Amino acid sequence: MVETEHYDIVVFGGGKAGKTLAMDQASAGRRVAVVEAGMIGGSCINIACIPTKALVRSAQLVELSHHTATLGLSKSGPVALDMSRVAARTAEIVAGMVALNRAAFEASGFELLLGWGRFVDPRTIEVETEAGPRRVTGDRIYLNLGTKAAIPPIPGLREADPLTHVEALLLEILPTRLLVIGGGYIGMEMAQAFRHLGSEIVVIEAGPQLAAREDADVAAAIGGLLERDGIELVFNSRVAEVSGHSGTDVMVRLEDGRTFSGTHVLVAAGRTPMTGGIGLDIAGVDLTERGFIRVDETLKTSAAGIWAMGEVAGSPMFTHVSLDDYRVAKSGIAGGTYNTAGRMVPYVVFIDPEFARVGLSETEARKAGIAYRLAKMPMDIVPRARTLGERTGFMKALVAADDDRILGFAMLGVQAGEVMAVVQMAMLGGLPYTALRDAILAHPTVSEGLGMLFARVPPGR
């Protein structure tokens, strides 16, 4: 019989929240174990944020090479793409960050148990390690299990061996014609990156627009951007069947009878939680209807002494939110009251140019019955955008109708993520929009456009 080992804290899953909590608590002198199936450092550095942005960067440079003449540069011939080198560079970046994480793990002093784990008793996790099974329990158990790409139950789709973003990052041969199922954030990033690398692209979206959470003007602008890149967009279309095999010859048939053929198919149809087959029912951990772990504002589950963090807990699917979940967990250990209620979540979609948003959209404000003033401005009038030759996009801001609070900000344009952070800081500090309108912002910078934007806010009531 395997003896159960006791720890102060057991973290099940080594994503951003889990690994950060483990290092923090182990460095503070607690006995900590992390159970991880094998993805050192979590999905962000292995298969998500970091490798996808490495691919996007290569694609951006390929695209920029087609426009050197506008910058007064000449070239002897077209840029030659080495897709195997693109994949190798991505792998090198990942390997370097994995090594950094492993070194940090060892320095903190927690014990890393590599292997598949599952609950075998309400508070006991059995881990199948290379050296044999281990059983661990803890005074506090934190679940940071993550999610995986969803594969919808479309006839023939699984049999076609489709790409997800994970497999797409490993491609050493550029797809000739890539069919992308799903027009959300991952679908948009992957579609444009592979288009810039040279693939023909078709994006098939079940809804009426890309980026379903965004305002119609944002979706239309992003859609126009992708169409100008030569991407074919198909809306209001559900896939009825997939045939063939991704990597050679694949066909997608829609419910209306239309068909699209390609060499590869990529599924970007959302994420599903990693909660199956690990004994959460044995632990007494309740799930939502969608299979995520049900938690309260302190990330406490239905089981005594067990908390959940990150995507698996239904938190917004961003690494920076997972990091904030760590802060919630750390506060709870210290007896604090920090929780998830009312937190402000920014995000960036790394298309080219970027799209970034924080706070309310117009759609959300109207749905909540919140009156607002709108300011909107094209990027074309920002001097820095002109000098960079990056004039596409716009900024827009929502300001409360009866006071000067900034309710939300969205931007499609060069350095959108960095500019958004400026507005977020103002919102966090409770500054009125006039603080940005009247600030002395360095010229010529992209952030200088904020003064121009907020000067367009209509008078209040």
From TrEMBL:
GO terms for molecular function: flavin adenine dinucleotide binding; NAD(P)H dehydrogenase (quinone) activity. InterPro entries: FAD/NAD-bd_sf, FAD/NAD-binding_dom, FAD/NAD-linked_Rdtase_dimer_sf, Pyr_nuc-diS_OxRdtase, Pyr_nucl-diS_OxRdtase_dimer. FAD binds at K53, G117, M317, F318, T319, H320. Its cofactor is FAD. Residues 7-323 form the FAD/NAD(P)-binding domain. The keyword NAD applies. Gene3D superfamilies: 3.30.390.30, FAD/NAD(P)-binding domain. NAD(+) binds at G182, G183, G184, Y185, I186, G187, M188, E189, E205, G270. PANTHER family: MERCURIC REDUCTASE. This is FAD-dependent oxidoreductase.
